[in-house]
Design a protein that fits this description.
Blueprint (H helix, E strand, L loop, with lengths): L1 E7 L5 H11 L11 E9 L2 E10 L2 E9 L2 H18 L1 H4 L34 E2 L1 H11 L3 E6 L4 E7 L5 E5 L3
Parallel strand pairs: 1-2, 5-6
Antiparallel strand pairs: 2-3, 3-4, 6-7, 7-8
Length: about 170
């Protein structure tokens, strides 16, 4: 696994770097060398945040944790990723390395309110089934997910409903 550790408002010491790399070895049983791990560590007053994103096999695994101790935040973020993988074990077995599992506020007047985009992301649309899209959405911890539906060959959206179920928005021309 390739590991990239960056810091926001923090200098990454050799101790933090070696601790993070050592803890990431725990995930090697799930991924091979093609996996790419991005670790972002940030400090804001007493809040120390570890954000971990792993790209592998067309999927994105993401976890974030904040505490008063950076080492605890790193440890919990890695545990969260491992828990996500184990929770979705049967669905992910095909995607992960062989043998991995043996061991917005409401606006009252929208005409006067200026819409401001504060963050922009690019997202590669990969062909997948709605079930795979729901799995990917849950792994990312998002409320919705845009994907290329391999059954209809259209761009669709899955989303999590307030009642805990899922919805599918199918595009029509």
């Amino acid at each position: 696994m390739k590991v990239n550790i960056t810091g926001r408002k923090i200098d990454i010491s050799a101790g933090i770097r070696s601790f993070t790399e050592k803890k990431l070895l725990k995930l090697d049983k799930f991924f091979d060398d093609a996996a790419d791990a991005q670790v972002t560590l940030s400090v804001e007053k007493e809040r120390q945040t570890a954000e971990l994103t792993i790209y592998y096999g067309g999927f994105v695994y993401r976890a974030e944790d904040t505490s008063e101790d950076m080492y605890a935040s790193i440890d919990r973020a890695i545990d969260l990723i491992e828990r996500q993988i184990r929770k979705n074990k049967t669905r992910l077995e095909k995607k992960l390395r062989d043998g991995a599992f043996t061991a917005a506020p409401e606006m009252s007047d929208t005409e006067e309110k200026e819409f401001k985009i504060v963050k922009s992301k690019k997202h590669a649309l990969k062909p997948m089934s709605p079930e795979e899209a729901i799995l990917q959405m849950n792994l990312l911890g998002h409320e919705f997910f845009v994907f290329h539906n391999d059954e209809t060959d259209k761009i669709d959206i899955v989303y999590k409903r307030k009642d805990g179920n899922y919805g599918l928005i199918e595009a029509e021309a």
